[in-house]
Amino acid sequence: MKKLLLLGFLLISACATVNPLKEMRFQPISTMDYTIASWYRITQPGEPLKIYIEGDGHAFDSQGQPTQDPTPESNFWREVAANDPSPNVVYLARPCQYIMSSTCSQQDWTSGRFSKPVIEAMDVAVAKLMKKAQSKQIILIGYSGGAQVSGLIAVNHPEQIKKWITVAGVLDYQRWAAWHGDQPLMYSIDLSKYLSEIKEINQVHYVGTKDTVVPLELTQKIGVDEDLIVPVKGASHNKGYNKIIQQIYDER
Fold first, then answer.
1. Cys-Cys crosslink for 142: which of 6, 15, 98, 147, Cβ 3.0 to 4.6 Å?
2. Can you tell me the distance from the alpha carbon of 178 to that of 239, in angstroms, rounded to the nearest whole number?
């Protein structure tokens, strides 16, 4: 049996600051390669399930070097998920965030952050959460790198996707890496290769006009229809989205 280090979960529990997920139940989800952390609130089984997928977290330090633990340092996406008043809501972390499975390696949050094993594990986690909620449809909401993950899941199961929403989302990681002068993510699956499948999915993409991590100009070049990209005036990568968060909450 894999030994799990629930370091992130324990840290949140022990932290003096308010835990944004305190009204949600913690659920570790076992998959073939990883155990993935999730928090959920299900009050109307059978209704659509909203799943907020976390970004890349603390994958790199301020010097651009890979960290030893990709657990997010920011509460931004956790707070967005926790404050959603919808009846069925999940905050879903990425592999190796909060729970460091024995199989985790730096590749899982660097060059292989969108690898086949990672996406398959997230796919399994989503399926198990849908079963728990008795839901046949989901609204996937991906933040930053979580946009790539949610998009690949949506492409695999278009019939289950009520809507695909991204916020400050990386939709073409190769173009994004090149934009920043980073090395290609050689072990990752490229969502941009599925543009024809993506076009069949109900979707919207919110991008901050002051986001320097995922610039609006870059998002506008990836091939998604222009009318599906919504610029959020004055928003950076994780601030200034209050004006559109209510629209996401209203999605049911």
1. 147
2. 24
